[in-house]
Structure formats: C-alpha cells, structure tokens
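Class, carefully examine what follows:
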Amino acid sequence: MITLDKAKAAKTRGGVGTRPEFERGETYYPRMTNDPIAPDLEVTRVLAASPQQIWSAWVDSDAIAYWWGPDGFTSTVRELDLRDGGRFDVVMHGPDGARYENVYLFEDVEVDKRVAYLHQGSEEHGLAPSRSTMIIEEEDADAPRTRVTLRSFYASDADRKRHLEDFQAAAGASQLLERLERVAIQG
C-alpha cells in the first residue's frame, strides 16, 4: 500500500479522505485502500488549465491520442461517444510496441465537471471490469487552475493487485494527468 509521506500528510485538511492542499503541478500521492467505499486508487493534480480546456482534451479524439495512458504511450481512438451511455474504444500503444485494447462505457458525464466510466476488463491481461471517475473542479476563475482527481475502484483484491502492482496504475494515472495538462494547455 502506498501512503502519503509526512510532508504531504501535513498539508491535508482534517486527515484521510479530505481535500489536500498543494500547488499547481504538484501531484498528490495516490491513496490506495481496501475500504469498500473508498476508491482503490486516487490521484489528484492541479492543472494550469481551465475546466473547459480539460474538457476540450476529452472530446477531441486526436487530443486523446497524446494524453491517454502513461508516458511513452500513444493511443488510437476507434470510437468516442462522450455522453451518459456512450462508448470509448481505444487502443493504447506501448513504447515496446505492445497493444492494449480497451473499451469503456460512460456512466455519468457532466460537461466540464465529471466523467465516470466502466472499463470492460481484459481477458488477455486477466483484468475484471473496473470503475473510474475523473472529477474536474475549478480552483481559480481568474487564472486557469483546475483540480483534477482520478478515482478507480477494482473488482477484487487480486484485480486491485494486478492493476496497482503489475501494471503500475498509480504511476500511470499520475503520468496521464501530467500529459492531460500539457495537451489541455496547448489546445
């Protein structure tokens, strides 16, 4: 389990589960837990972009190719229907040439605010379906500054371990948010 270091913990308001205080570009270390209500993985980053810029990166399949996935990956979007009940079919291409086909179903989409989706899992990689939510919260209307939180929930302890240890989901999620920031700023 990865936990906050003491310096990060001192910046939180009120302890575990509360909103951390940190500067733009500083990544809040992921929180992973076995709590059935809390997410298995939570990564937060303040981006130097407006919620509208972040949303634009979500709705543009060409932009997604540059930010979806960890460092070194590119993506090919085969389908993107960003709405409640819509579908996102994407192939992630790893730096080693490996292909990772992913299908997501959007469950709760609120423009400029939230995208909740169900990953359909992968028989090839031994992954059960999982749920994730990206929450987009404007920090400062005068300067583009937006807190983005990615929360993921896994189906079982074994699946949690597969995502977090074998596939390094915490590092990948942090890198995804960094890449999203770069693409959102570039427009």
User: Anything to note?
Assistant: The first helix runs from residue 6 to 10. Strands lie at 27-31, 41-47, 74-80, 87-93, 99-110, 114-119, 130-140, 145-153. The domain at 6-14+25-186 is CATH 3.30.530.20 (Alpha-D-Glucose-1,6-Bisphosphate; Chain A, domain 4).
